[in-house]
């Protein structure tokens, strides 16, 4: 039986193996993903993002418990910054989520932020696909960070929760503006701290300044204290409300189109580059180009044009 | 006279126009960059990165003043998260750096984190190239954030300073590990706060655990209070020491090779993808693929292979 067939039967070890193959970028994983694809699209994907120290992991832990209490199976994809010393995800199997360790209805997978640009976003989509097809009802994607990578990753999610925390310094203003567009729900966590009302109010004001189009979703601003479970049922209710909105408003169709396009683009981008790289390395071309750049006798723009002319004849 | 020629004469307006063209992805900017490339390589590039709220902007402001006092011309490339509402860099021309606004020896440029994956890293290299060739002695690249994007961006710098701040929550552990490899100098800013000694000690311990190879650079951990200028002369001295190390140890040669290779790769990756996209759009192929994915009759992996076969004949 192929790995894909085992995954479709809900085999956890097979799913874990396939995810490892994806993470390692092994070519045989592609065939398994091809076989799984027609069976995908059943899981509901929830993204959790926000700046460091916002308490995202605790929130994910609480959400997992809440969804489990509803009888749903929950997959968690946690994106960790990679360490060159441990050679992978340093948070490993998420020790803090230990309370779900013996629960067969919870599957947790960490992905490291190693590898090339865009690669992580693609791996996340692929791992979410495996979780979907192995029978998870909810897949939670958690990212640590606030950069473009994270923005691209959470775009995979049906509902994205942006987690903030009161009083995190000046840069937060900049970050807020950058992530306003991606949040379907805003969460001010650690809301028992000073300044939480102000942060929530500021967020609401910024959201109101947007020229929302008729019939679009108005992102709510929630307050939680994840450590004590405060505000979690309300957050789950808002996630359900957004889900309901997506599937009744027609916005869900647009979202799926965009998500599919992005997923395809990432795969294509990756493949194009790998092929070009293989071509350049086999001919010793890369070496020549880098040497020419070092001597300032060749510029990288002209070099790229020459490579293009060779591998994509007839296009410029 | 071409834009490139004007830039080489130190024309600030021409440089600003070329940077705008780069930021907008205008094709004519490429020809100017080609013309500038042989004249590049004179500026020393300093990267400043770290999590939100670490006080990086204040530090950059102080460093700029310190380099100016040495009679050096300073360019600053500040990477801001983009806002969909202001349509670009929300911090604009860095109002807080007002004190350098009338100084002809300081050129500040904000880049927004809009656009496609990898695009920002490429734009940063290109903008740094313009600042280099217009006669800046020092180019400071400041990034807000801690993701893979930021890591790639600071790899452009000769010397990378990672700025931390005492007590920023649990995620900091994860971040620290991820950025240990990219920091040449670690700065604990806001060192007048509680816990700064502990943060500095933890950082030193983590750095010591690395198996440093013989003759490699040992990153120092500095303490600063940028707001009051405390520790800035010492930081400048460490940057000078690292520069000296790069040019006497031979490590500088390896660094330049790697940087050139990365710069070329980013340009090539971008070009490959743009060409593939143009091909797919002109033939209505993208539409067909996304529709097929929506119906689950086509998977994105097979679709990418078909496109590859068409545009890169003879390669798979």
Features of this protein?
homodimer, 316 residues, alpha/beta, Rossmann fold, seven-stranded parallel sheet, 50% helix
Unreliable residue runs of chain A:
82-96
Distance between the ends of chain A: 45 Å
Report on the biggest sheet of chain A: 7 strands, parallel
Strand coverage percent of chain A:
5-15%
CATH superfamily of the largest domain in chain A: P-loop containing nucleotide triphosphate hydrolases
Largest interface: A-B, 91 and 90 residues
The run of helices and strands of chain A is HHHEHEEEEHEHEHEHEHHHH
Describe the protein's architecture and organization.
The structure is a homodimer of 316-residue chains. The first copy, chain A, is α/β, with parallel strands linked by helices and 316 residues long. Chain A has two domains: 1-39; 41-249, Rossmann fold (3-Layer(aba) Sandwich). The first copy, chain A, contains twelve helices and nine strands. In chain A, the strands form two sheets. A seven-stranded parallel beta sheet of chain A has the order 5-2-6-1-7-8-9, sandwiched between helices. Chain A has a two-stranded antiparallel ribbon with strand order 3-4. Chain A is globular and about 60 Å long. At the A-B interface, helix 3, strand 3, helix 6, helix 7 and helix 10 of A face helix 3, strand 3, helix 6, helix 7 and helix 10 of B.
């Amino acid at each position: 039986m192929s790995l894909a067939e085992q995954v479709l039967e809900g085999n956890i070890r097979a799913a874990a193996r396939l995810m490892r193959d994806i993470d390692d970028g092994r070519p045989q994983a592609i065939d398994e993903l091809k076989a799984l694809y027609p069976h995908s699209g059943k899981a509901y994907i929830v993204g959790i993002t926000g700046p460091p120290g916002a308490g995202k992991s605790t929130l994910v832990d609480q959400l997992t418990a809440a969804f489990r209490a509803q009888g749903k199976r929950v997959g968690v994809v946690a994106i960790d910054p990679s360490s060159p010393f441990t050679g992978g995800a340093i948070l490993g199997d998420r020790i803090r989520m230990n309370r779900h360790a013996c629960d067969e209805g919870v599957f947790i997978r960490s992905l490291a932020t190693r590898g090339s640009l865009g690669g992580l976003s693609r791996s996340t989509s692929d791992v979410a696909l495996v979780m979907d097809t192995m029978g998870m009802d909810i897949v939670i994607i958690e990212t640590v960070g606030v950069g473009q990578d994270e923005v691209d990753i959470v775009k995979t999610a049906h509902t994205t929760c942006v987690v903030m925390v009161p009083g995190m310094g000046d840069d937060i203003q900049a970050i807020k503006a950058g992530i306003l567009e991606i949040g379907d729900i805003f969460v001010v966590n650690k809301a028992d701290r000073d300044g939480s009302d102000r942060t929530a109010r500021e967020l609401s004001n910024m959201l109101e300044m947007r020229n929302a189009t008729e019939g679009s979703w108005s992102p709510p601003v929630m307050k939680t204290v994840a450590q004590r479970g405060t505000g979690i049922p309300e957050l789950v209710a808002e996630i359900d409300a957004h889900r309901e909105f997506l599937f009744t408003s027609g916005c869900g169709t647009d979202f799926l189109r965009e998500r599919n396009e992005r997923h395809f683009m990432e795969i294509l981008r990756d493949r194009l580059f790998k092929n070009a790289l293989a071509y350049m390395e086999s001919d010793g071309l890369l070496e020549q180009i880098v040497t020419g750049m070092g001597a300032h006798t060749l510029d990288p723009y002209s070099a790229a044009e020459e490579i293009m002319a060779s591998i994509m004849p007839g296009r410029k």
